[in-house]
Amino acid sequence: MSYEIFWISGSPYAWSVLLALELKGLEYTSHLLDRSRDEHKAPEFLAINPRGKVPVLTCGDTVISETPAILAYLEAKHPEPPLFGASPEETGHIWQLVSEIESYVRGPVADGVSGPIFRGQVKDGNGAANLKAAKGPAHDALQWVDENLTGTAYLAGSAITAADIILLPVMQALARAAGKEAAAHLDLAILPLDKTYPGIAAWLARMEALPGYGNTYPPHWRD
Ligand SMILES: N[C@@H](CCC(=O)N[C@@H](CS)C(=O)NCC(=O)O)C(=O)O
Predict the structure, then answer these.
(1) Residue 163 has what pLDDT?
(2) Does the beta carbon of 106 lie inside 6 Å of ligand 1?
């Protein structure tokens, strides 16, 4: 039975699942939905996920949504290479990191900074003021990430884990958003990453060199 993934280009959650499929060397059929045509709200897709959200992974009659659930499902079916560690202690530590990223990094970085820039919400006074207020919490979160990536190849040690693949899209979106012309007046002090957050920059380069990484890169970012 083969895997099918339903996703949208640039969805950070979907990107994490694509990375897991690639890292585990699994074959899959890709269903890239067109967000501009609301294909994720079409009846055919709502029949698969009534919430109208991606990613969704199917395998025969099995349908799984919610990124952590999909990662846990893939890990249970394909334990090698492990993305959640090889001992209970490692597993606990990796889930802690995943939860910390979800609870304390994604919000300040993605909702606070990259999301508003991508959506063009930083041009007027209100949007720029909101962004200014969001800078401090985002830098606090980035500082935490950078500290956790200093002196170690990956977040949980020498091997890549689910924590890295959850974090990767959040960091790539931030780097892309911060480099946009629309962000030039915001004094974000995020780029160049190798000067501001060298631990994150070195880790990003390692992640980009992973086999299969190119297959996961958002198609609409290639243009
Ligand atoms: N909690 C979900 C979040 C999924 C999610 O928010 N997906 C976004 C794309 S990044 C989506 O499908 N948004 C479409 C919409 O809400 O209309 C997960 O872990 O997978």
Answers:
(1) 98
(2) no
